[in-house]
Amino acid sequence: MNKRFSPVITERDKLGRIITARANVPSIERFMHYIEISPSGCWEWSGGTNSEGYGNFSLKNQAVKAHRYSFGYFKGEIPKGFVVDHLCRNHKCVNPDHLEAVSNKTNIIRGVGLASQESKRTHCPFGHEYTEDNIYRTKNNYRNCKACAIRRSKERRLRIKQMSKVSK
């Protein structure tokens, strides 16, 4: 069963409807209202999220990402040029113990996306090791195996040579 922090202070309007007394509630209390603690230790954001699954939190009429607010409140300012990485890989988590400020490159490499998978490869599909001596980089900074490029070039020259013999 999920634990939930105590709710935001509410009051009733003239018609008896419940309204949230946001003006008098500190932002951290409003923030904590949207947290549910999961068995994994994640503080899962139960408020609004964006299309990527990150929590949104309204602060002074501006939307901020909930995990960035949490990091800033509990750990201090995010250094310039850094992003907040979810060590638990859960986009809805706002637990400051699960968050770390890192460079964007580090965040991508730690992730599970295509760039991360590619950076972890140590050998080409034909088994040649990716070393600085055996790779060349494309204009998009992709790694290519020099040994395979040499092999492809030799095969291409051989095909061209064989085709020219057939046409004679």
Could you please describe the fold and organization of this structure?
This protein is of the alpha+beta class and 168 residues long. It has five helices and eleven strands. The protein folds into two domains: 3-120, Homing Intron 3 (I-Ppo) Encoded Endonuclease, Chain A (Alpha-Beta Complex), CATH 3.90.75; 121-168, no CATH class. The strands form five sheets. The chain has a three-stranded antiparallel beta sheet. A two-stranded antiparallel ribbon has the order 2-3. The longest helix has 22 residues, at 146-167. The protein is elongated and about 100 Å long. Mean pLDDT is 86; it is low at 1-7.
Keywords:
168 residues, alpha+beta, Homing Intron 3 (I-Ppo) Encoded Endonuclease, Chain A, 2 domains, two-stranded antiparallel sheet, 5 helices, disordered N terminus
A few lines on this structure:
The chain has 168 residues and is an alpha+beta fold. The protein is built from five helices and eleven strands; from the N terminus they run βββαββββαββααββα. It has two domains: 3-120, Homing Intron 3 (I-Ppo) Encoded Endonuclease, Chain A, CATH 3.90.75; 121-168, no CATH class.
Overall CATH architecture of the largest domain: Alpha-Beta Complex
Report mean pLDDT, rounded to a whole number: 86
Query: H/E element string?
Result: EEEHEEEEHEEHHEEH
Q: Give the percentage of residues in beta strands.
A: 15-25%
> What's the story with the biggest beta sheet?
3 strands, antiparallel
CATH class (first level) name of the largest domain: Alpha Beta
Gyration radius over CA: 27 Å
Cα distance, first to last residue?
A: 80 Å
Looking at how many chains there are and whether they match, the oligomeric state comes to single chain
Query: Strand order, biggest sheet?
Result: 1-4-5
What count of domains describes the coordinates? 2
